[in-house]
Amino acid sequence: MALASAALVIQFGLIAVTQFRPLGELDSASLKGGWNAFIAHVWLWSFFATGLLSFAGLVLGILGKGNPRIAAGVWSSVLLGIFVVRLVLAVNSFH
Q: How far is CA 59 from CA 37, 49, 52, 72, in A?
């Protein structure tokens, strides 16, 4: 459950950044290089990390033993679903 909770914290942070700087603006700013490019790369890798952490939590929930694995599996599934929805929205925002 710790992996999924970490993914949730990262997702909320990314939502806050995206609220103040839309993805198109981050993309065009990253072409200028410097600090803007660094922020764009951090955003992108943090976004992918949320999916990886959610997926890892789901796998560990399936492979684990005991009662907490059911809660971990459900929690990770919810966060993985949120990641997929945000991925589709992010990809569609550039078209």
A: 33, 15, 10, 9
